[in-house]
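Thread title: Can someone regenerate the structure for this chain?

I was given the following input by a collaborator and told the matching structure tokens would be attached. They weren't. Posting the sequence so someone can regenerate them.
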Amino acid sequence: MMMPIDADSISMKPFANGRRSRQLAAWFTALCVLLSASATAQMSHLPELGDPSATILSPQEDYRLGQAFMRNLRQNVDIIEDPELNAYINSLGYRLLAAAGTDLPFHFFIVDAPSINAFAGPGGHIGIHSGLILAAQSEGELAAVMAHEIAHVTQRHLARAFQKASASQLQTAAAIIAAILLGSPQLSSAMIATAAAGSIQQQLNFTRAHEQEADRVGIDILVNSGFDPYHMPAFFGRLQEAYRYMESNLPELLRTHPVTPSRIADSQNRAGQYPDITQRQSDSFPFIQARLRAMADQEHRYRLKELEARLSQSDTLSAAEQYEYALFQLQLGNLEQADTFSRTLLQKTPESEQFIALRAHVELEQGEHEAALQRLQKALKLFPLHPQLTVLYARALIQADRPKQAADTLRELIQKPQQFVLPSYYQLLAKAESAADRQSNAYMALADYYQMIGQLRTAIEQLENALSHTAADNSFQTERIKAQLTLLKRQALAQQETQAQQ
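Best answer:
Regenerated them for you:
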């Protein structure tokens, strides 16, 4: 049976996947220490060719591990699926990558967790906790942490850690990877923490060496990206000072990336070696923070009360605060107030893609799909395939009973070069294809969705449904589905066999 998809819930409810982040905190702690980075790079700081670390984790193995890592991660933690937030974090990430001089594939994503943390997993997957973004006082501080994580990857710290580890440590690391990648019920977070404790202590000096190297390379990346190098020691120093008397409540970033006074001093000295630079900070950062706060489920409702109190006292809100307030009202279904604020913001800054998206979203919620369509068509000429605008445009097309055009638009977004595809794109594509009475395509889109979130058996079921709905004379579609089925069945069998060995 075709699964019903509520396209209207996709854009504004990216956090609705459950709340299991806190249950896996110990897993992430172990992962970030023993899996502090991954994969090959093309920088002058790399180990020499022939380094034995290059033979322990090949680029192909790293890629496969990274894909499995992301599938499992989506099953066990809340990853924010909002197109605008993902576009921002990847845009900032690729700005840093351009300065790093690497052409490796990277993927930056936001974990919906209040903790102040970031991590570099296998395959160039770099996760940033939403709590870290909200704790940063500027885009430069966020960029400093991301540059640090990029440096972990380009310096091959994962492979080098494996090369240095003893056989017993490798067993511990393998157990932790299996637990995280496979979601093994036999390995609880407490067992992982206990098993990892000894090896973490044994690797402490090596880990600190990694951190210092990542600081130094990260500062180079930061400067070459046009950011003030002092953002890195300033952010880590501020966190250390704030939590210096709270050993049991340290933020995850300080636990998984040990900060010492000598390390901060070293990064300050390195920052001082660069001449003053004119920073190239984006104007988007306060709006990104506002969007994160407004889209949280309950944690930031105090913020809404604060904004309402200021409005009642006739205080002037900044543009970012007005944007945040409008998003709160939109989320709560108070369309009249959302309408007023979205109009005001757009009148002041008519070419802001964020304000255009906000206004179009309000119009869609009000049932004014034709007004939204006209607004979005015009905007997409200025910002071709902008993720948030394109998703809203596809939703408007579905509302206007033009599902085929919506499906074509979404496929164009999905196939855009260097565009990281969100699972929610495939959900919306399935809805459009179903509305267009192209059921085989709809099932295939759902198969892609379930494959991305790690539900391989459900993905297989969707492909079998697609095969049964494919016309007998469409041999190309039939063979394509069969090939994908074969691949997924192999992956599911390998996953089942590995789980049985745990």
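The longest strand covers residues 107-111.
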